[in-house]
Amino acid sequence: MAQVNTYDDNSRREDLLDLITNLSPRETQLLSGLGTSTAKDVLHQWLTDTLKSVAVNSYIEGVDATFPDRTDPSRLYNVSQIVRVGYEVTDTERAVANAGFNDRYAYEAQKALKEWSNDAEYALMRGSLACGTSSVARSMQGVKNWMTSNNYTDASGASMSEANLNDYLQFVWDDGTQVNALYVPMYIKRKISAFTAGTTKNTNQEDKRLVNAIDVYEADAAQMVKLFAHRYVTVSGDTRYDVIGLDESKWKVAYLRKPFTRELSKTGDATKGEVVGELTLECLHKDAGFYVKGLN
Questions:
Q1: Closest C-alpha to 97, from 9, 16, 23, 11
Q2: Which of 183, 226, 265, 291 is most buried, most CB within 10 Å of its CB?
Q3: CB distance 155 to 293 below 8 Å
């Protein structure tokens, strides 16, 4: 009797999990972490103002009031950026049986929503201002470009040190706000985690874990500063590492149209759709943060 083995057995069913693992990272800390606002036009504008300078203030009884010079409000602006991600699935693909999802079109819609969020996050961090024409798309000014002239430092290859970080935090404190969030590449996050801050780490001998990470940093000029390893502060092509510090209460995501999915007109034997949204970045205080470029 011939031996039966698996090598030539065409009756075997395939062993395929009904699960799909997406390998691409998502980065939406600005998009999901900042407050939101509403835009009413593609040119989104807001006003800022300042108080008079502090001075000795002591009056003799009964004298008339004096009137210090007053500043007029300044107008700042950004433009709304249309972010769109399309997807298309043939009707045959929707009809066949698939592993991991019931409807390929619905599955691609969910992927497109995540891709939209990544693209919006990239614009919020790195976008360059373009007011747009009939042939040039509008583009918002992102965090890094808002701060190229305010609390901006070109470190020119210097190493990130704890003393330098505290100097950067003080720059913002001197301007009247406090940093409460740092956005850094993983390389710099690891450097900050190695800061001692003049303290000793105590561990429980029964706990076998070795913890070498800092997620919240406290300094004289800023309390409870959250640390986020962010993929778009430094990207491929940047020669060195950058650091962004923000007072997040002074930055908002303003939506002209919040993201939504819609099915497009049918052409051919396929179903088409897209995710579309329109948004911009509000910077309520241009000195409410710092930008350090070119660290090692």
A1: 16
A2: 183
A3: yes
Q: How far apart are CA 118 and CA 193, in angstroms?
A: 26
**Contact of 230 with 181, CB cutoff 8 Å:** no
What does the domain layout of the chain look like in residue ranges? 29-47+73-199+212-295
Q: Using alpha carbons, select from 83, 152, 76, 78 the residue that is nearest to residue 121.
A: 83
Stretches where the chain sits below pLDDT 50 are 198-201, 208-211
The full length of the chain comes to: 296
Residues 29-47+73-199+212-295, CATH architecture: Alpha-Beta Complex (3.90)
| pLDDT score for 27 | 85
Question: pLDDT, tens digit, for every residue of 97-139?
Answer: 888 778 889 999 999 999 999 999 999 999 999 999 999 999 9
Could you tell me the CA-to-CA distances from 255 to 80, 144, 146, 196 in Å, in that order? 8, 20, 18, 41
| pLDDT tens, residue by residue, 29-61 | 999 999 999 999 999 999 999 898 889 999 999
Q: Evaluate whether 41 touches 83 at the Cβ level (below 8 Å).
A: no
3-state secondary structure of 145: helix
130: Cβ–Cβ under 8 A, 6 or more apart, which residues?
Answer: 79, 136, 137, 138, 139
Evaluate whether 35 touches 284 at the Cβ level (below 8 Å).
Answer: no
Q: Does residue 250 sit in helix, strand or coil? A: helix
